[in-house]
Amino acid sequence: MKEWIKVLNKNFTFPHIKVLYPTAPRQPYTPAGGQLSNVWFDRLDINPFVPEHLDSLAKIEVEVRNLIQKEHEAGIPSNRIVVGGFSMGGALSLHVGYLWDRNLAGVFAHSSFLPTKSIIYNELKADVDAQFAVPPLLQVHGNRDTLVELKWGKETFNQLKSLGVKGEFHVLDKVDHSISRKSMELIKDWVTKVLPEDSK
Predict the structure, then answer these.
(1) Predicted confidence band of residue 16 (pLDDT cuts 50, 70, 90)
(2) Which of 56, 87, 180, 183 is catalytic?
(3) Is residue 108 exposed (0-12), middle (13-18) or buried (19+ Cβ within 10 Å)?
(4) How many structural domains are present in the chain?
(5) Domain-embedded: residue 200
(6) Which CATH number covers residue 183?
(7) pTM of the model
(8) Catalytic annotation on 177?
C-alpha cells in the first residue's frame, strides 16, 4: 500500500498517529503456480468459493500478534490501533480485527473479500456477544475490479454486517483493482474519525 501512496503522491500522515507499513513475507503462492511471492498467506485460488488455507493463516497470525505486541510495549493499546490494507492485506486485516484482536479501534479493507465459508464468519456466529465487541469496518471497492469482483466485496461486508459488524461500504466509480486518490481520502477521513486526536 505504501508504494501506491507514493505513486499517487498522497499524504497519508496524521499528527497523532504512527503509520506502519509491514511487508508481506516471501513464500510460495499457489495462484502464481507456487512461485515465491510477497503474500500474507497462501490460498488455493482467488475466488470466494475455495476454503481458507488455515495453516498459512496460523503462521502469519504469529507475526501479526508480535507486531501488535510491540505497539503495546510502546504504550499503544489495541483500542488506539487501526489495521487495514489493500486486496490480500485487507483480507488479512479482517482476520486481525474479527478473529485475533477484537479490541482494535477499527479495520479497513480496500478491494478485498473473504471466502463464503471463512473461519471469521464461523467464529462470529459462535460468539453471541460479538456484535458488542468488534471494531467498526470500512470497505472500499472499485466497480471495475476484475481481479476481486465488486460483488465479492459486497457479500463479505453484508455477511459481516449480519453478524454484528457495523461499518461503511463505498463503491469507487471507474476504479479497477487499484488504489485511487478518492479511496485514500475516504480511508484517511475514516481513520481520523475512529482515532480522533483527543481520544483517550
Answers:
(1) confident
(2) 87
(3) buried
(4) 1
(5) no
(6) 3.40.50.1820
(7) 0.90
(8) yes
